[in-house]
């Protein structure tokens, strides 16, 4: 491992160094030449200003360099020969000064500048050149230049300089401005390449004198570059060697500890946590090794705990499954997505699904709930809890629809499941099949009711016989009196007694009718204040009970059946009277209240009238409070136990609620809620006046006694009547009167006639003859919705049997 790392790092270092050297040479040479060109132009400009223009002109004049003043140059000669003389310019002071100035310019960049010279134009794009060449070798001068033989020239006037093949030079010299060659120019004489830079020399009047030239040799440039490259190579080699040394040194310091840590990770992977890392250092690797050892120890401890917890959880899960199998309730659990994660055997049986089939299925795909009465689908309790995240108890009368179409009556509760962070993780639904229980309960109630009816029948028969005895006895006595003598007062007394017994019998039958759920309320606006005060006076007036009636000043009317409400309050007031032994207090109050869903009675919502009856009587035991509304339940002797049951039935039919709170030996409170009618302070009173009416009425009644009694009452008011005991006769009499223009003002028709004729159908036929005819429906059985909603069938009022003379009078007064 160590050798591999050394080889890898060495190779990388060598490759890096090579790339560095190559890139360095390319980039350095390119940048160097560009900078040299830029600097050479600056040097040329500066040098041209440093050349003494006057001295230059003086020298040119002395040596006779003028356009056309030179003879042809020998091709083998390097020097110009004047037509007049060979001038020894080395001894000329002007030349020496100019040469000194050129040397100064050359020495500015001596390591780069090969030549510094002055170009003097001679015509035909040829120039004489005054050159500084310190390294020029000794040369032999032929012919008439023998005096200079073996002389090292410090400067010389060279041969005519032909620049016709140098566009850059031509351009610079012709335009007499600064110029530089684009690339290196090869000089055959010196066998080298150089960059040439030119700058004009001008006098103080800016007149052109000559041109300064500088040659930058590529040999010198390359020597400098090679020197720098050599330094870089040496540096790179030293760097590579240093890296290798560092790698070799650090391999034992870094690689070996890492190898130990790697071996330790493999052991942890194989769940082997008992090991010791031989890395005892204070640096990052030492800290890493120490932390890794600690982590391995914690993982070992954690795994041991997890193993113990898993074993414990396995045992608890087995116990839970045993419990779920043994309980009689169905249990279904879902996650937060509503997918089923648990189902016991009872739930499988009731739903018709096996748990294996439901795994990862959404609950609403297998659970369907129906309303017992309408069998319409209702809200899924699990879906409800997933939405509100609160416990939800299903209402009664719900059906669970099984997979095979079976229906089970159930009671159930869905509850959210929360984790330790109070986040909901699912819902559990527990439900019980109460189908058989409800059957048994109904059978038990039926048996208890039959037993109670049997017990009650004796008492009712006894009471009814007593009432009949009063009637029959009075009739017998009347007959005797009529045979013996005629005593009007005595006859009236006996008739009163008979009437009283008959009315009590009527009240008894009415109670039985209401209890049997045959008495739908006949609603009209009721003034509770008058009703409560009247009944309280009737019940408590003759006793020492302290009675207090407090009615809200702006109490709403209620829309109710006044007769049935009288029965309710009379029963409750009598209970309070007997509970206080006729010598306590009874407080009665009524007020307007607005009920909300969050109140104690969630079923009621909106505007209601609240009636509270409170006494300080004997009270009711706590365990008996839930029985007080049961039929036939009573704690009093010689009572039939129908009072509160009838009250409960009546209040329920008025869409109200009745509640009882009591403490044995202290108090009893009865609270009644009734919906308001929306009208304030409406008046309702019975008119006892016996007015006479000139009205023609058709009586359609199948019972002869009832028909004749009603006819006598109406005749006593001045009405004219016609009887018809069948629908056919009624239609015949009505058509006859209509054709003869003796139309009837009113038709009173019984609900059921002979031959199952319906009074509603008969009245509809009469209205087809006379659409303006008024009708009143009459019946002794108030269960039918027609009587409760008579206006929907075209009637303007109704009469409940048995009715009194006052009822007929009130009817006529209201209509005519």
From TrEMBL:
Protein name, per record: histidine kinase
Pfam families reported in the protein's UniProt record: HAMP, HATPase_c, PAS, Response_reg
Location in the cell: Membrane
Annotated Histidine kinase domain residues: 459-678
Coiled coil: 292-319
Key word ATP-binding present: yes
Cleavable signal peptide: none
Catalytic reaction(s) noted: ATP + protein L-histidine = ADP + protein N-phospho-L-histidine
Chief location bin: membrane
SUPFAM superfamilies registered for this protein in UniProt: ATPase domain of HSP90 chaperone/DNA topoisomerase II/histidine kinase (SSF55874), CheY-like (SSF52172), HAMP domain-like (SSF158472), Homodimeric domain of signal transducing histidine kinase (SSF47384), PYP-like sensor domain (PAS domain) (SSF55785)
Keywords attached to this entry: ATP-binding, Coiled coil, Kinase, Membrane, Nucleotide-binding, Phosphoprotein, Transferase, Transmembrane, Transmembrane helix, Two-component regulatory system
Domain (PAC) ranges: 394-446
InterPro entries with a match to the protein in the record: CheY-like_superfamily, HAMP_dom, HATPase_C_sf, HATPase_dom, His_kinase_dom, HisK_dim/P_dom, HisK_dim/P_sf, PAS
E.C. no: 2.7.13.3
Primary enzyme class: transferase
Any one Gene Ontology BP term: regulation of DNA-templated transcription
